[in-house]
């Protein structure tokens, strides 16, 4: 650039003496797009602050200019050091500067798929911009998130754009507004501290200004209803590991500002969890974080971004259903997560106290509740075609006794089945009015298979709930019984409404296709899917909202492919493209042909890693003189560098100092040559 | 009201029966009278007494005394408690909450013990305020009635806690008998066994179950309850409980790299730094979810109902054991789930090459714990070599138990470190031994010498608590067994008997000395013997020496050892309440210090040889 400026035609104006005045051309955005640039007379010794002062005087516009700064178009850089002189910044008469706000509206695609319009800082490093965004959104540990350019959407429907603009936070006064040096420290602290938000009705005060912002908070902190199956099917799904490498080419450079990376006002960026190590997750403080992480995980599963087995998919489906149901019934106040847990704990405590002191309660306990009814029983045996036969059944404690008829009920039962430890599975079709319970009762010789056929939904839900509890050794008088009955009923209701037009989740109805990835849309009809999900649902129906979300995340994190970010690379000395997987503790070399893991290297064996920025090659040395080097095929090698450095940074976070974010260290580890 | 009264007196009678039987059992146990029929009120079982001879020894050993003390303590504690409460209630003449309780309470089968306890304690607290207007005579009667109810309920409550007398075989062929109540975890039991044996208390000691039918063995995890799985054994079972070291129990925590980096060359992993191992554990066990080793490879699966074994490519995931069907990829979506782990346990198998024509002898099975015989619901798998089998079994355990396993390990390491000295051992023992005794009072009493308690109980009668013969029988008196289909409410005792006919081999295994003994049964001591320690059996040397000799060389007197009171005694004391009858002077190898105190069994007093400390101290650092 310096050479260029020497040959520039305006070179003649280059002042030879510091006091020589020359004209600087600055475009002031606030004057409107058609207004001509302003010329101010400056000397090379004038500092940036002085330039701004002159500029503001000249505009004759009375407004708060504190957020404005000078952007040097040709050099793609901000002139933020107000104490530096023009000479020191290298600005000469040929420079075209723009006077523009540092914070601009951005359309932010959240992990839950919603687009939120809000102001973000375009002048600081993307890392710090994310910190500011997370601060407003009430997300702790912003270092785990980052911004990326969205996948281009096929522009077919315009109505989608309008719906995207529903959520707007641009009016929220940014406390992170002027990011000068004094407030920086405070901000850094606040971003990870737990207790700085003044909570109002369970949410940070800055959301409590208007119903509009309250709605934004609710969107952020409560998981969204399941999407319509068509919506899932329409979205882009990676079909191969190669496809999965594409997403990682889109990450912004954390060391540079948004403006420098070509992001402009009102552009769209995605905010995503980038590093899969979630530090110090605490439902009490992490309502938004937990919800958004859940959403990201949910979409990763629905869009087959991470592979799982059918059994796992059914469990994910059941958990989504459960979370969706609980989220709907949740209002703003209790969306302060952890509340529900506390409440239930209190409730159970209450029950205990009452149980301990109340003699009538005791008496009730002594006459234990029972279920008595005619049910049809079927015991499949080889080579027998005997069907269901009706018996008088009595459910008491954890056992079912059955008799020939109700008259015989005081005599010896034909048989008594203790359900403790048994497996209970539904065999239900609402459409076919079939309500069967399949029991596999363990016995020394094996499992006894028994079917109970109920007449109707009500009977089924009662007996099913009882069986379910008994299998866990709980009795009918257990406090969870009524809940269990209700859960089963609502799930049945869901199946009933399946015949109706598929719709997103409403209060009672949901299309089970909304809960699984498109692969299973093809494989199963909703009707076939429901019993499978119902089966998995039995095991999670008792979870509170927070526990269900945590459980979902837990299973997600236990998937073998969890937390691997893929990059297409070319290893030194190799002639074919391969895939490099980066995780929180290791690098994985994957052969594209077979899709197999060829080699893994763990970070704790890593001596050092270097990037040769000229040839864009990453070189890593491991213990025992193992050296690897590769170039990136489709991503910038800065992204790979950042990923590795970022994970090493994440591992330096300890539980004790969770409240301070060592931004400097992050930059050292991820900045590359820009950190210098 | 008449009805109620009638019902009530019915119940009281039953209660009395129960009480009696408690006493009976308590005192008659050491009596080697032919146990033709187990006491009528059978309910809890003993386990593991198939080897008659060994059981005989055990019974006459101090262990049994301690067991008795335990039982007696329960009773006396209950009575004491009742007595004190009576005092406090004096003056008030409660209308006893008779009406609906007794019958329904008795007929309440299958209830969980916790619930039961809550109920019975309720009844005590819930005496309604006294109607002062009543004449004193009536008052008195009511009072008595109420007291009786309370006593009854207390006993019921105690009886509800299921206890098993378990014979545990130790590696050297000797065995120990101990009482396990359903609240105790395997960890508690191991601690108990540490007290009773001279093993080095390292973290590898495990309580295992074997099943000769299926030729399986499984080490119980430390957090599991012991009583529950044992209760599901069939009556004629030949299953055994073993206590021995299992190297693979916690190997994954000592050398996680061998499991988590199993694909790598084992040699290169051999000298992994401790720090790196720790980090591996941290990564895999301390995150939001436990990471299961990414095992995959070819195993043989026994086909359903067939004799053939088929090779399949298996993959282990946190959600279950999968295989990839022929012609499909290893991609998750194509995997077929063989089994999920919620309801099954994993068992090592022996000699399946012969039994099932397996390709190798390195087999494991997955089954519901209650299944005891060959069944189509069992999954049989076979590995190429032993290490592969260890890998898979450990991997499955991690998938099933998750972080619990790691917690168990850490607790075990702490224990092992803590038991390095006798002092710490005895402290631990007294604090950790879970006690069936209901009242603190009883505990306080037992340290001293309420011999009379033993005596009174003892002299009352002597029918039950037969020496455990083969199979199972019961100890304390019975409320309906929660685990088993309950009989109708009426006299539980007789019904119980109906439900559990004496096992077929009962007669042979009962007291007439069995043919093939290496050790002649010691002479049956009369019940009074419990009072006269010296006469009462010297513990048979063979057992002692074999036990001591195996785990550790006969110990020279150790200064440390002599200091604290014998831990075993303490253990039992706290567990039972009544004092164990003072044991005789120790047999030959036992060192002098042990004899100084007449309490506690010889074995426990035996001081640790100096040698022992070394392995113990070493254990944690190794781990």
UniProtKB/TrEMBL annotation, chain A:
SMART domains: B41, PH. Keywords: Cell adhesion. It holds the Pfam family Kindlin_2_N. The keyword Cell inner membrane does not apply. GO terms for cellular component: cell-substrate junction. CDD domains: FERM_C_fermitin, FERM_F1_KIND3, PH_fermitin. Residues 376-472 form the PH domain. One of its GO terms (biological process) is platelet aggregation. The keyword Amino-acid biosynthesis does not apply. One of its GO terms (molecular function) is integrin binding. Belongs to the kindlin family. This is FERM domain containing kindlin 3b.
UniProtKB/TrEMBL annotation, chain B:
SMART domains: PH, RA. Residues 15-44, 86-141, 423-623 are annotated as: Disordered. Residues 465-492, 500-527, 552-568, 578-592 have a biased composition (Pro residues). It is a peripheral membrane protein. GO terms for biological process: signal transduction. InterPro entries: GRB/APBB1IP (IPR039664), PH-like_dom_sf (IPR011993), PH_APBB1IP (IPR039665), PH_domain (IPR001849), RA_dom (IPR000159), Ubiquitin-like_domsf (IPR029071). CDD domains: PH_APBB1IP. It is found in: Cell membrane; Cytoplasm, Cytoskeleton. PANTHER family: AMYLOID BETA A4 PRECURSOR PROTEIN-BINDING FAMILY B MEMBER 1-INTERACTING PROTEIN, GROWTH FACTOR RECEPTOR-BOUND PROTEIN. It comes from the Eukaryota. Residues 103-117 have a biased composition (Polar residues). It comes from Cyprinus carpio carpio. This is Amyloid beta A4 precursor protein-binding family B member 1-interacting protein. Residues 162-249 form the Ras-associating domain. Keywords: Cell membrane, Cytoplasm, Cytoskeleton, Membrane. Residues 423-445 have a biased composition (Low complexity). Residues 292-401 form the PH domain. The keyword Transmembrane does not apply. Belongs to the MRL family.
């Amino acid at each position: 650039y310096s050479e260029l400026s020497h040959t520039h035609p305006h070179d003649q104006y280059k002042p030879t003496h510091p006091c020589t005045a020359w004209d600087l051309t600055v475009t002031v955005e606030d004057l409107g797009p058609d207004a001509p640039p302003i010329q101010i007379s400056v000397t090379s010794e004038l500092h940036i602050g002085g330039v701004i002062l002159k500029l503001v005087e000249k505009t004759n516009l009375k407004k708060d200019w504190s957020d404005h700064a000078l952007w040097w178009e040709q050099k793609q850089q901000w002139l933020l050091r107000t104490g530096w002189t023009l000479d020191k910044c290298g600005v000469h008469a040929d420079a075209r500067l723009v006077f523009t706000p540092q914070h601009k509206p951005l359309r932010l695609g959240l992990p839950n798929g919603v687009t939120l319009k809000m102001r973000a800082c375009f002048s600081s490093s993307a890392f710090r911009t994310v910190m500011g965004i997370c601060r407003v959104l009430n997300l702790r540990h912003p270092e785990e998130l980052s911004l990326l350019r969205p996948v281009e959407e096929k522009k077919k429907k315009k109505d989608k754009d309008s719906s995207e603009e529903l959520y707007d936070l641009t009016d929220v006064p940014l406390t992170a507004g002027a990011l000068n040096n004094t407030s920086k420290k405070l901000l850094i602290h606040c971003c990870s501290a737990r207790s700085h938000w003044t909570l109002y009705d369970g949410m940070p005060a800055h959301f409590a200004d208007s119903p509009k912002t309250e709605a934004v908070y609710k969107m952020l902190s409560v998981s969204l209803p399941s999407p319509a199956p068509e919506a899932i099917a329409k979205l882009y799904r990676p079909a191969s590991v190669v496809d999965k490498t594409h997403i990682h080419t889109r990450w912004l450079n954390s060391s540079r500002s948004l403006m420098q990376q070509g992001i402009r006002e009102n552009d769209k960026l995605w905010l995503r969890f980038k590093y899969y190590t979630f530090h110090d997750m605490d439902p009490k403080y992490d309502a938004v974080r937990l919800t958004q992480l859940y959403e990201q995980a949910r979409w990763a599963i629905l869009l087959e971004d991470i592979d799982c087995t059918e059994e796992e998919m059914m469990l994910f489906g059941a958990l989504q259903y459960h979370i969706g149901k609980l989220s709907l019934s949740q209002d703003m106040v209790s969306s302060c997560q952890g509340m529900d847990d506390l409440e239930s704990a209190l409730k159970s405590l209450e029950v205990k106290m009452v149980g301990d002191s109340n003699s009538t309660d005791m008496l009730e306990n002594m006459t234990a509740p029972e279920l008595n009814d005619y049910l049809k029983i079927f015991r499949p045996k080889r080579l027998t075609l005997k069907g269901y036969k009706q018996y008088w059944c009595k459910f008491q404690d954890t056992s079912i006794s059955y008799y020939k008829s109700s008259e015989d009920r005081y005599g010896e039962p034909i048989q008594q089945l203790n359900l403790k430890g048994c497996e209970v599975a539904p065999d239900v079709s609402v459409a076919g009015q079939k309500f069967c319970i399949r029991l596999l009762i363990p016995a020394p010789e094996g499992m006894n298979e028994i079917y109970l056929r109920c007449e109707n939904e009500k009977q089924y839900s009662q007996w099913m709930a009882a069986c379910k509890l008994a299998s866990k050794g709980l009795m009918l008088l257990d406090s969870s019984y009524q809940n269990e009955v209700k859960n089963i009923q609502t799930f049945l209701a869901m199946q009933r409404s399946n015949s109706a037009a598929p719709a997103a989740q409403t209060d009672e109805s949901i299309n089970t296709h909304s809960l699984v990835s498109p692969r299973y849309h093809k494989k199963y009809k909703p009707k076939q899917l429901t019993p499978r999900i119902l089966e998995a649902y039995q095991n999670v129906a008792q979870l509170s909202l927070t526990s269900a979300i945590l459980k979902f995340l837990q299973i997600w994190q236990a998937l073998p492919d969890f937390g691997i970010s893929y990059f297409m690379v070319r290893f030194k000395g190799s002639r074919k493209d391969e895939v490099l997987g980066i995780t929180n503790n290791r690098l994985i070399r994957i052969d594209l042909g077979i899709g197999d893991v060829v080699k893994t290297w763990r970070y704790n064996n890593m001596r050092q890693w270097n990037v040769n920025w000229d040839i864009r090659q990453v070189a890593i040395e491991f213990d025992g003189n193992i050296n690897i080097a590769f170039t990136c095929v489709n991503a910038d090698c800065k992204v790979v560098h950042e990923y590795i450095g970022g994970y090493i940074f994440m591992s330096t976070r300890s539980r004790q100092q969770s409240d301070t974010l060592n931004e400097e260290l992050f930059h050292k580890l991820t900045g590359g040559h820009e950190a210098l | 009201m008449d009805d109620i009264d009638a019902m009530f007196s019915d119940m009281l009678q039953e209660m009395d029966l129960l009480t009696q039987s408690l006493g009976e059992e308590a005192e008659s146990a050491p009596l080697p009278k032919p146990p033709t029929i187990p006491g009528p009120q059978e309910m809890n079982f003993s386990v593991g007494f198939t080897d008659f001879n060994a059981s005989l020894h055990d019974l006459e050993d101090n262990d049994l005394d301690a067991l008795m003390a335990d039982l007696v303590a329960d009773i006396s504690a209950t009575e004491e408690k009742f007595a004190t409460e009576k005092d406090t209630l004096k003056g008030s003449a409660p209308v006893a909450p008779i009406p609906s309780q007794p019958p329904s309470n008795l007929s309440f089968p299958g209830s969980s013990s916790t619930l039961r306890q809550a109920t019975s304690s309720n009844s005590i607290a819930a005496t309604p305020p006294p109607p002062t207007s009543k004449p004193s005579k009536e008052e008195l009667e009511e009072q008595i009635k109420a007291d009786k109810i309370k006593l009854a309920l207390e006993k019921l409550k105690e009886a509800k806690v299921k206890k098993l007398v378990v014979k545990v075989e130790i590696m050297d062929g000797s065995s120990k008998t101990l009482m396990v109540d359903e609240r105790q975890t395997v960890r508690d039991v191991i601690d108990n066994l540490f007290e009773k044996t001279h093993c080095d208390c390292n973290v590898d000691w495990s309580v295992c179950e074997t099943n000769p039918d299926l030729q399986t063995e499984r080490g119980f995890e430390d957090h599991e309850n012991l009583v529950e799985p044992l209760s599901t054994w069939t009556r004629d079972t030949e299953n055994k409980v073993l206590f021995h070291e299992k190297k693979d129990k916690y190997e994954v925590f000592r050398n996680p790299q061998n499991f988590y980096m199993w694909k790598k060359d084992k040699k290169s992993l051999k000298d992994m730094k401790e720090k790196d191992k720790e980090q591996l554990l941290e990564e895999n066990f301390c995150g939001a979810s436990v990471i299961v080793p990414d095992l995959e490879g070819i195993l043989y699966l026994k086909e359903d109902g067939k004799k053939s074994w088929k090779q399949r490519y298996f993959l282990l995931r946190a959600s279950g054991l999968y295989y990839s069907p022929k012609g499909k990829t290893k991609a998750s979506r194509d995997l077929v789930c063989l089994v999920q782990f919620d309801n099954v346990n994993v068992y090592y198998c022996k000699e399946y090459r012969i039994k099932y024509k397996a390709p190798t002898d390195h087999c494991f099975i997955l089954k519901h714990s209650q299944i005891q015989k060959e069944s189509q619901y069992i999954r049989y798998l076979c590995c190429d070599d032993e290490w592969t089998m260890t890998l898979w079994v450990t991997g499955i355990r991690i998938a099933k138990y998750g972080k619990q396993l790691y917690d168990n390990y850490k607790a075990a390491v702490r224990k092992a470190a803590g038991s390095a000295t006798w002092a710490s051992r005895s402290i631990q023992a007294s604090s950790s031994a879970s006690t069936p005794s209901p009242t603190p009072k009883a505990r306080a009493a037992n340290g001293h010498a309420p011999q009379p308690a033993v005596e009174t109980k003892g002299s009352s009668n002597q029918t039950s608590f037969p020496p455990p013969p083969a199979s199972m029988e019961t100890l304390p008196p019975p409320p309906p067994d929660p685990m088993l289909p309950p009989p109708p409410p009426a006299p539980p005792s007789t019904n119980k008997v109906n439900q559990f006919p004496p096992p077929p081999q009962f007669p042979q295994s009962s007291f007439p000395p069995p043919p093939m003994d290496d050790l002649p049964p010691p002479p049956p001591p009369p019940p009074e013997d419990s009072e006269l320690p010296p006469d009462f059996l010297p513990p048979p040397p063979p057992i002692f020496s074999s036990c001591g000799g195996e785990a550790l060389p006969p110990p020279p007197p150790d200064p440390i050892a002599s200091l604290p009171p014998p831990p075993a005694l303490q253990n039992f004391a706290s567990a039972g309440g009544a004092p164990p009858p003072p044991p005789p002077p120790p047999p030959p190898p036992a060192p002098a210090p042990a004899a100084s105190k007449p309490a506690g069994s010889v074995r426990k007093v035996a001081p640790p040889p100096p040698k022992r400390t070394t392995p113990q101290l070493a254990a944690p650092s190794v781990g």
